[in-house]
Amino acid sequence: MPPPSVNGKYVFLSKIRSPEDLKRFKPEDLQKVADECRAYLIDVVSENGGHFGSSLGVVEMSVALHYVYKTPNDKIIWDVGHQAYIHKILTGRKDQMHTNRKFNGLAGFPKMSESPHDAFGTGHASTSISAAAGMAAARDLSGSNEKIIAVIGDGSMTGGMAFEAMNHLGDSKSDVLVILNDNQMAIAPSTGGLRNYLVNISLNKTYNRVRKFIWDSISLLNNDLGDAAKNAVHKIEDGIKAALTPGAFFEALGFRYFGPIDGHNTEQLVKALKEMHELPHPKLLHIITTKGKGFKPAEDNQSKWHASSGGFDTATGKSLKKPGKTQPPKYQDIFGSALTELADKDHRITGITAAMSSGTSLDLFQKAHPERFYDVGIAEQHAVTFAAGLAANGYKPFCAIYSTFLQRAYDQLIHDVALQKLPVVFAIDRAGLVGEDGPTHHGSFDLSYLHPVPNMVIMAPKDEQELRDMLSTAAKHTKGPVAIRYPRGICTGMPLRSGFNTMEIGKGEIVREGSSIAVLAIGTMVQRSVEAARILEEEGIDALVANMRFLKPLDTVLLDSIAKQHDTIVVIEENSIIGGLGSAVSDHLQKKRLTNNVMKIGLPDSFVTHGSMNDLYRLLKLDAENISRQISTFYKGTATEKSERVQSTIRTERLA
Question: In angstroms, rounded to a whole number, what is the distance separating the alpha carbons of residues 78 and 547?
């Protein structure tokens, strides 16, 4: 869809091509600019989809930041990056927003290569303060004077990395502004002690009354009085904070704390940012915002409207898409319902999420077994070692984490779980390509990074029935950790049988017989391989297809049998071509001194861009038609080579 028209409805926004244009407006016009930005965002997302509620909540802050600071010289880091849509609108990308998250379009997150205004790429959470500290150190070493601002919100402050960075930054005394966007939400409502702490600050009426008086006093002093009076007021303010603020936590870390202030009051935000602009030390501005602000459906149901696929009425939020046939359930829903069913009969089973209860469908488990459900916040490292602690004391924790986020807890997975052979089950959601969220969210590497870890069982289902059976199998496995990786999106729609079957660990299956060539696949690629085999059959190539199921332990009995009967083997996986199933097969054949021709098809040794799943499959030649073409070319090439070798042998024998 083309971008919404900017004439008429968007009087102010139509004049903004860069932050410099924004600075030409009068302060009293900034709220009107913010209102137009919010309306424009609603228009764009209603047509094209995208992350929604978070950016609606930071409209006024985005306008105020670009009014006061001078990007790209000054650096603004957005954490999590899905808050940055208004930032993109104000930094010259307004007319491209209709391409957001589409193939060859704008990225859904800040991307350094996309714009000089994107100071740092942020798809994962809790990274902004560390990056800001590094940028500040570089600035101080080089003697430049740019300002560094880290905007952290949407649950990102619950991640341990943020506190590690604050601990360091507070000690360094470097000039960095941290803006805590406190909306008490991640995708689902935030949990934990920090949330309660921030709520206590925002609700402390005595502190807020005195804080307002002190704030107004400092504002007056900045204009009228000298340094001695300023210092006196600062000391009074510090004393009141120490007495009334619950714990004075941020001050104790070495930050000057300001707030909380209304994050939807543009005038107040501009005033606060200007007054903190020249403070030469770490400071934290605590703002209170509403996720989904200005769009009532998103305010009323913040989890649902965290992101939208588009196609909704901009006034009511009602879907404008014509109802189609009922779609199969999502893999995450199969996981959530199956785990709940297993937990009904096994009191040892617990469910753990890192702020993604709805994203992983563990909310189904939460409703049924709230006493055995744990949301630890955006803290994957803690989630894994917390699971290890549960397992060490006789429980069976299922730790549901997206593939790309599990990367953040790799040390804990090795050191705290695998080394001690603890029976933690890793339910790895969003394995493989995820589409529009792009390279920060593609689950491209989990088979590769899990493969070398001792004591791990690694499996991937070809369909929803296998996912159920694998979950049951994992629940009964006691000799170490288990990883089950499954994709984003809808299932095959196959009918499910009741109950669960326990699978034999390390046992694959042949799903299609064939004599010409053997195709070994795992997970999502099994069905695509079967489809490709049907296409190959029309060319006279009879392909066997094996569902390997397990990367570790590898079904070497099945592999040896296939290798004896097929000179040519193709291995297909939706994982990095380095280190996954293809590597395991090649390593085994080499170890057995077998000389089969092996072709590996998988994700390339590069970061995959964003776009629809169909666009990406075609780009990477992982759709059935392209898979069949690659196999056909490889098979014919090896057949030609074999024929040439035979002819060469015959000629040699004749000469002899």
Answer: 42
59 cis-preceded (ω within 30 degrees of 0): no
Residue 188: pLDDT above 70?
Answer: no
Would residue 408 show up in a list of annotated catalytic residues for this protein? yes
Higher pLDDT, 312 or 603: 603
120 DSSP 8-state letter: S
List beta partners, residue 178: 150, 284
Work out the angle between the directed axes of helices 266-276 and 30-48 (0-180°, nearest 10). 110
Q: Is 414 left (phi over 0), alpha (psi -120 to 50) or beta?
A: alpha
Question: String of b and e for 58-79 (b: at least 16 CB within 10 Å)?
Answer: bbbbbbbbbbbbebeebbbbbb
Please spell the DSSP secondary structure of 281-297, one letter per residue. S-EEEEEE--TTTT-HH
Q: Which residue among the candidates 380, 464, 573, 574 is catalytic per the annotation?
A: 380
Angle in degrees, CA 20, 23, 24, rounded to 5: 100
Return the pLDDT at 465: 98
Please determine, for residue 187, whether its predicted confidence score (pLDDT) is greater than 90: no
DSSP 3: P
| Spatial separation of the C-alpha atoms in residues 151 and 129, rounded to whole Å | 8
Contact 293, 300 (CB under 8 A): no
**pLDDT of 95-120, one tens digit each?**
999 999 999 999 999 999 999 999 99
380 is catalytic: yes
Phi, psi of 48 (to 5 degrees): -115, -10
* Low-confidence winner among 295-299, 447-451, 562-566 (lowest mean pLDDT): 295-299
Distance CA 239, CA 308 (A): 46
End-to-end CA distance of the chain: 72
How far apart CA 261 and CA 211 sit, in angstroms, is: 10
Residue 374 has pLDDT above 50, yes or no: yes
**CA pair distance 588, 583, nearest whole angstrom:** 9
**Amino acid identity of 587?**
D
Judged on CB neighbours under 10 Å (0-12, 13-18, 19+), 431 is buried
618 in active site: no
User: Tell me, what amino acid is at 151?
Assistant: V
Q: How far apart are CA 244 and CA 242, in angstroms?
A: 6
Task: Please state the length of the chain.
Answer: 656
**Structure confidence at residue 247 (pLDDT):** 35
8 Å CB contact between 113 and 104: no
- The tokens for 411 are 């040390």
Catalytic residue, chosen from 75, 101, 211, 408, is 408
- What residues contact residue 209 under an 8 Å CB cut-off, 6+ apart? none
Q: Which helix (H) or strand (E) holds 249?
A: helix 249-252
Least-confidence region, from 57-66, 220-229, 280-289: 220-229
Q: What is the mean pLDDT of residues 34-38?
A: 96
**3-state secondary structure (DSSP) of residue 396:** strand
Q: Region 490-498: what's the mean pLDDT? A: 95
Count CB-CB contacts under 10 A for residue 185.
24
The C-alpha atoms of residue 69 and residue 26 are separated, in whole angstroms, by 15
Spot the catalytic one: 291, 396, 549, 600: 291
Q: Is the pLDDT of residue 651 over 90?
A: no
Q: What letter represents residue 565's amino acid?
A: Q
Is the four-CA dihedral 587, 588, 594, 599 of positive or negative sign? Answer: negative
Instruction: State the Cα torsion 542-547-550-553 to the nearest 10°.
Output: -40
pLDDT-derived band of residue 200, with 50, 70 and 90 as boundaries? low
pLDDT in tens, 542-563: 999 999 999 999 999 999 999 9
| Distance in angstroms (rounded) separating the CA atoms of residues 462 and 573 | 11
Domains for the chain: give ranges and CATH numbers. Answer: 13-204+245-308 (3.40.50.970), 331-485 (3.40.50.970), 509-644 (3.40.50.920)
